């Protein structure tokens, strides 16, 4: 472990996890809250949540395999591999209490695998702007084309084009810094890492018939203008998971935690202090 000071409440650590060096931001103290970023980003997408929750939780925000400052694997990185990395990370960090797991988009795909293989490690689930079904044939082909494009031309070939699917038009207008931050995050990501997880998402399992078996407190959060995982998708999942809740964030797209951090933090707060601890 190689800690690097961030501020009084935060530190960056590096752990050997399943043959790679994994970088993780650890902040605060209290019950563990695991934040799992989306594609093709890093733990930095969660900075508003880290700052908000570090006063009451041990916030664990890793860079997944191939992203941020974590080592890269070439070929295909499956959602199960990411889930196994997270389990090994928690072991390395000596986190013994069940975690509240919050994942966005790809982080949600990984959540299903984490629940499947490590259910005893979960206290609660928060699923932001994600889905339980697998890709259609068209979706698979689009992912494989993007992976090939990035391998050939680098992340700059996709960074700007991704923005309309990531944040709403109103967020682009009202918060122009969000687009810049997302483009910077994407362009800082290694092309091999992007391609490997894109291929892994293309091959991911369909959990739409399994989520009815989830028996832990679960919250779904979605943006009202999300093009990739629209409200009807989020609502349907919530209808399948017993006693789960769906909360919608107005006027935002796929990156609800970045676009409306105060609203999302409040939804998470209400859930973690009431529903998840009931």
From TrEMBL:
InterPro entries: AB_hydrolase_1, AB_hydrolase_fold, AB_hydrolase_sf, Epox_hydrolase-like
SUPFAM superfamilies: alpha/beta-Hydrolases (SSF53474)
One term of GO molecular function: 3-oxoadipate enol-lactonase activity
Tagged with keyword Hydrolase: yes
Top-rank taxon: Bacteria
Protein's UniProt keywords contain Ion transport: no
Domain named AB hydrolase-1: residues: 31-261
Enzyme nomenclature, EC number: 3.1.1.24
Lineage of the organism: Bacteria, Pseudomonadati, Planctomycetota, Planctomycetia, Planctomycetales
Species of origin: Gimesia algae
GO cellular component, one term: membrane
Keywords of the record: Hydrolase
UniProt-recorded name of the protein: 3-oxoadipate enol-lactonase 2
